[in-house]
Design goal:
It is built from 10 helices and 13 strands. The chain has 373 residues and is of the alpha+beta class.
Length: 373
């Protein structure tokens, strides 16, 4: 007898290092976290009518499986987009009702959107026994964001939400989707996210501009190295050939991506060696590159990173995510976490007029079934 109902969860994610490398076919090092979206779904007996409620917002979406199309905006398009992409893969579904709620902060750079997309995709795959692979579900969730939400995101967020493992980070090759797990054994250290609670309006327009700038850089490099398809294919020594023949801004953008890919690979070596201090040093290098070469940081993020420098109990800090707001990710000794937050929060408030929100996160498993009858 087919399953009638199911409850699933899919987490948000952090990215240890590897920012703005994903859409350049590069490497990233994400992990699933202990903040998640929980979706409860059940068949309603109707051939096509569906009803989904967003518990955190107390809003409901009604739609038919035979007329799935984008709406003006909002969370509804994440739901509709996932259903549409599953249908494109040949999924045969019937009417269902459901609800979802979660504790992944919206706008905090922990990818609440991918968490929702993956929870729904995973849940529908289980409820209707669609037989789709996790890779197919990941790509469907990504395309939902492309085609219904209008954000041409890379695949990292959905991959981490679906494939995460407890106390392990994922080295993901965004070109081949090959991946390896590395242990994140922090010992006396703790991961702390500091949410700036700001989101500057530049974010979306500058994101698209950075993609175009990277493509412009590749076009220049291809004149000498026609085999180069993305910045992933470029080494720092190759790039140095173009320092005088490429616009300074374009060169800086390329330098960030190429050096960041190298930092990701060095980070996996640090994790294998259990060298948290080396990992932290790479985080600082990443922030400096994002701040100066890629120019996607902002005063709030820079202030928070600056507050960690020179403190013996902090291994590393950097901005995390697309930039222009969101969180910093910090690695610091557990016993100093409370003292550090208590010291920084009032300074941040005094400087910018916003409250800081700290999140102590742990690394957990990716999408899975919570409960079923």
């Amino acid at each position: 007898m087919p399953r009638q109902s199911i409850t699933v969860q899919s987490p948000g994610r952090i990215n240890i290092i590897g920012e703005h490398t994903d859409y350049n076919d590069g490497f990233v090092l994400p992990a699933a976290i202990d903040k998640k979206t929980v979706a409860s779904l059940h068949r309603n007996g109707h051939p096509s009518a569906c009803r989904i409620t967003a518990g955190n917002l107390n809003e409901t979406l009604n739609f038919g499986l035979n007329q799935v199309k984008p709406l003006a905006g909002g969370w509804q398009n994440y739901v509709l987009g996932v259903v549409h992409e599953l249908q494109k893969l040949g999924a045969q579904m019937q009417g269902f009702d459901g609800s979802f709620k979660g504790d992944v902060p919206i706008g905090g750079g922990m990818s609440s959107s991918a968490s929702l997309e993956c929870a729904l995709a995973f849940g529908l795959n289980e409820l209707f026994d669609l037989g789709l692979s996790k890779t197919q579900l990941i790509k469907a969730a990504q395309l939902a964001e492309h085609n219904f939400v209008g954000i041409k995101c890379g695949i990292m967020d959905q991959f981490a939400s679906m494939m995460g493992q407890k106390n392990r980070v994922i080295l993901l090759d965004c070109r081949s989707l090959e991946y390896r797990y590395f242990p994140l054994e922090l010992g006396d250290y703790q991961l702390l996210l500091l949410n700036t609670n700001v989101s500057h309006s530049l974010a979306s327009s500058e994101y698209n501009r950075r993609r175009a700038e990277c493509e412009e850089g590749v076009a220049v490099i291809q004149k000498k190295y026609p085999e180069v398809a993305y910045l992933r294919d470029v080494s720092l020594s190759m790039l140095s050939d173009f320092q005088n023949s490429m616009p300074e801004t374009i060169y800086a953008r390329c330098r960030h991506v190429v050096s960041e890919n190298q930092r990701v690979l060095e980070a996996t070596q640090a994790l294998t060696a259990g060298d948290i201090r080396k990992l932290g040093s790479l985080l600082y290098q990443s922030h400096h590159s994002l701040q100066h070469d890629y120019a996607v940081s902002c005063p709030e993020l820079d202030f928070l990173v600056d507050q960690t420098t020179g403190l013996d109990f902090v291994a590393g800090s950097r901005m995390m995510g697309g930039g222009f707001g969101g969180c910093t990710i910090n690695i610091l000794e557990k016993k100093y976490c409370g003292q550090f937050v208590d010291n920084v929060a009032p300074k941040y408030r005094q400087r910018f007029g916003y409250d800081l929100t700290p999140y102590f996160v742990s690394i957990e498993d990716g999408a899975g079934v919570v409960a079923q009858p």
